[in-house]
Amino acid sequence: MTAALGEAFGAARATSPRRAGGRGVPRQKLSRRRRAEARWFWVFISPWLIGFLGFLLGPMVASVYISLTEWDSFTEPEFVGLDNYTRALTQDPVFWQALGNTFFYALVSVPLGLVVGVWLANLLNKKVRGRKFFRTMIYLPTLVPLVATAMVFKMVLAPSGPLNDLLGVVGIQGPSWLLDPVWVKPALVVLATWGAGGATVLLLSAMNGVPKEFYEAAEIDGAGPVRQFWSITFPQITPIIFFNLIMGLIGAFQIFGQVYILTSGGPDNASMMMVPLLFREAFSFYHFGYASAIAWLLFVVIIGFTALAFRTSRSWVFYETEVR
Amino acid sequence: MAAATQQLVPAPPLPGGGARDRVTRARTLRAFTASPLTYGVLLVVSAVFFVPFVLMVSISLASDQTSATNMFTIIPTEFRWTNFTDVFTETGLPVGRFVLNSVTIATLSAVGQVLSSSLVGYAFARLRAPGKSFMFMVVLATMMIPAQITMIPQFLLFKELGWVNTFLPLIVPSFFSNAFNVFLVRQFVSRVSGELDEAAQVDGLGYFGIYRQIVLPMMWPILTAIAIFTLTASWGDFMGPLIYLNREEMMPLALGLQYMTSTSNAMQLPPWNLVMVGSIMLTAPMIAVYYLGQKYLYEMNVSGGSAGVK
After folding, report:
1. ipTM
2. pTM of the entire predicted model
3. A230–chain B Cβ distance below 8 A for any pair
4. Is A27 in contact with B299 (Cβ distance < 8 A)?
5. Which residues on B lie below 8 Å from A291 (Cβ)?
6. Do the chains contact at A44 and B275, CB–CB below 8 Å?
C-alpha cells in the first residue's frame, strides 16, 4: 500500500501528458449499451455527486460570499467587499500571531516527526529481536484519540509532571510548558512527536520493500551502514517521506483540538493558531464573515506549502516507475 | 517497490514480518545488524512513549484527594477500582449516555461510508462513461480542500435545517461518501480482474446486480478497512460535536470528557482521576479495534498517513 501512495503521487506526473493527448481523439457516438452503462455510472456516483454539490461545492461558493460580508447569521449579511481580508492582513495583530504560531508548529513538528519516524523505522528495519513488540510500543500512541491525548498531556506537561521529573533527572529545570508563553508551542510539538510512530510504520514497510541486492552490492563495495542508509534506503523511501511530509503539513496547519483543550490559545495568544482563531471568531463571536476570510487565507497557506513541497520534490523524491 | 504494489490486495502481512527472515543468508548484512545500541535506543524510546499510558492508568486509580492535589505518581500506588464505576455516577454528567452517543454516531457513520463509497468506488473502477476521468480528477481534487472552508456554511445550512443538537450533521455526510474512501475502493476494485462481472453481464445480470452479488462480496477487505477507519475517526472526532452538540445528553464521549474538565470552576477542580477513567474508556476501544482489524492495517495506514499530527 505504501507503494500505492507513492504511485498516486507519481501518477499525477505520469498521466498528465496522456490526458492532454486524449482530448484530440474524436468523440464517437456511443452504442445503446454504452449509453445505459454511462447512465448507471451517474446513478452509482450520485451519492458522492450530491454530497459534493451539497456539502462541498455549494458551501465553498457560499463561503466565498460570506467572506465578503459582515454577518452574525441573525441579521441580514452586509456586503463589505475585501474588508475582512484586509482587516486580517493589516489590522488584526492576533491573526499574524496565529499565522506565525501555526508556521512555527507546522515547520517544527512535521520535520521533527519525520526525522524521528525515519530514525525509528531504520532501527526497526534491522534484525532486532522483538521487533513486533517495539513496533507496537511506538505505534500505540497514534491510536489514542486526540481528546484523551490532550488530557494525558495536560498531566505530562504539568509544571511538576513526569516530563519535568525526567528532565530533573538529567539536571535540567523544566519550564512550566503550557503556562509559559515561550514553551507552550514546544509543548505542542512534544505532543505531536508522541505520534511519530504513525509515520514509522509506513516508512518501515517502505524500507522492507527495498531490494536486498542493493545492500549486498554496497557491502561488497565496502560501504558502511551510514553510507548505505543515505545512498540506498533514503532515496528508496523518499516517496513515502514526501507523502508524510505533505499530509503532515496539511494536518499541522489545521491543528485545533490540542490548542482548544490545552491552552485555548493562551497564554497571551502565544499558542493561538489559525483554526482555533477561526473557530473563536465564528462560534464564540459570530463573526462568520471574518472567520470565512480566515478560512480562505488558511487555504491559501496550505495550497502554497503543498505547491512548494511538490516543486522541490523533483530534486529529492525518487519514483522508480519514472526511470523504467 | 513494483512487487509491493502487486501484492497490495489482499492486505500483505504486517511490515517486518517473516518473509525476509525465512530467506536464509550466510550472515546478516551490515546495514541490518542490530547493535546493543540499537536495542538501547529502542528500549528507551518505547519506555518514553509508554509513560503517558502508565500515567493514564495511574491517575485513573488515584483517590480524589491525590488527583486534586496533583500528588499522583507515574507508577500507581493506589488502586481505587471504584473510580471505574464512579465515573458513571459521581461526575454529575450522563457519562453512560456519552458512551452510547459515541457508539451510535460512530456506527452509523461507518455504515454510511461503507455503503456509499462502495457504490461510488465500484462505478469509478468498472463502469465506462464519458466524463468519468474528469469526475475522478474532481474526486481527487476535493481531498485538497480543508474542512475549515466548508465548516461555516455547513453549520449555517444544518442550523437552518434544525439539525443542531442532533446527530444528523455528524452522520448524514457519511452517507454521501468521502473522496479518500472512494479512491481506496476504486484502487482496490481496479486491481481485481473484471472477467467475472463480464461473465455475469453476458448472463443478463444488471449493473446493480453485479455490484450487489459479485463486486460487493469481494470488496470486504477494503470495506472493513474503511469501516475501521471511519469508526476510529468518528469516535475520536472532537470538532464536529463541539460545533453541533451543546446539550449534555447528546454529547459523545470525546466532547463529554472535555466538557467534564471545562465545567469545573476555580472552586472545584476537574475530577482528574475520573477524567482519566474516561480517557481510558475513549482509548481502549480504539486499541481493541486496531488489534481485531490488524490484518487491514495497511489500508488503514494510508488513511492514517497524517496520524502523527492528528
Report:
1. 0.84
2. 0.85
3. no
4. no
5. 152
6. no
3-state SS assignment for residue B93? coil
**What is the SS3 assignment for B250?**
helix
Are B80 and B140 a contacting pair, CB within 8 Å? no
Residue B154: pLDDT over 80: yes
Q: Are B31 and A233 in contact (CB under 8 A)?
A: yes
* Pairs across A and B, CB distance < 8 A: 350
User: Are the C-beta atoms of residues A232 and A125 closer than 8 Å to each other?
Assistant: no
At residue B106, the 3 state secondary structure works out as helix
Report whether pLDDT(B242) > 50: yes
**How far away is chain B from the Cα of A91, in angstroms, using its nearest Cα?**
22
Distance CA B1, CA A7 (A): 10
Q: Is A124 on the interface with B (CB under 8 A)?
A: yes
pLDDT tens-digit series, residues B45-82: 999 999 999 999 999 998 887 777 777 777 888 888 88
Which residues in chain A are contacts of B42 at CB distance < 8 A? 120, 123-124, 128, 134
Task: Assign domain A91-323 to its CATH superfamily.
Answer: MetI-like (1.10.3720.10)
For A138, the closest chain B residue by CA position comes to B46
The set of cell numbers assigned to B12 is: 500483505
Q: Does A293 touch chain B (CB under 8 A)?
A: no
Q: Are A240 and A247 in contact (CB under 8 A)?
A: no
Residue of chain A whose Cα is closest to the Cα of B304: A198
- pLDDT band for A138, please (50, 70, 90 cuts): very high
> What is the rounded CA–CA span in Å between residue B253 and residue B232?
13
d(CA A124, CA A205): 10
Q: Tell me: the pLDDT tens digits for B7-45?
A: 333 444 444 444 444 444 546 777 788 888 999 999 999
Choice between B66 and A16, residue whose per-residue pLDDT is larger: B66
Contacts of A284 in chain B (CB under 8 A): none
Tens of pLDDT along B92-146? 889 999 999 999 999 999 999 999 999 999 999 999 999 999 999 999 999 888 8
Residues near A164 by beta carbon (within 8 Å), at least 6 away in sequence: A158, A174, A175, A177
Domains of chain B and CATH, by start: 37-81 (no CATH), 95-306 (1.10.3720.10)
CB-CB neighbors (< 8 A) of A129 in chain B:
34
Q: What is the mean pLDDT of residues A95-102?
A: 95
Q: Which residues of B touch A307 (CB under 8 A)?
A: none
Query: How far is residue A212's CA from residue B26's CA, in Å, rounded to a whole number?
Result: 14
Q: Per the omega criterion (within 30 degrees of 0), is the bond before A267 cis?
A: yes
Is B302 close to A54, i.e. CB distance below 8 A?
no
Instruction: Please give, rounded to a whole number of angstroms, the shortest distance from the CA of B224 to a CA of chain A.
Output: 15
Percent of chain A with pLDDT over 90: 60
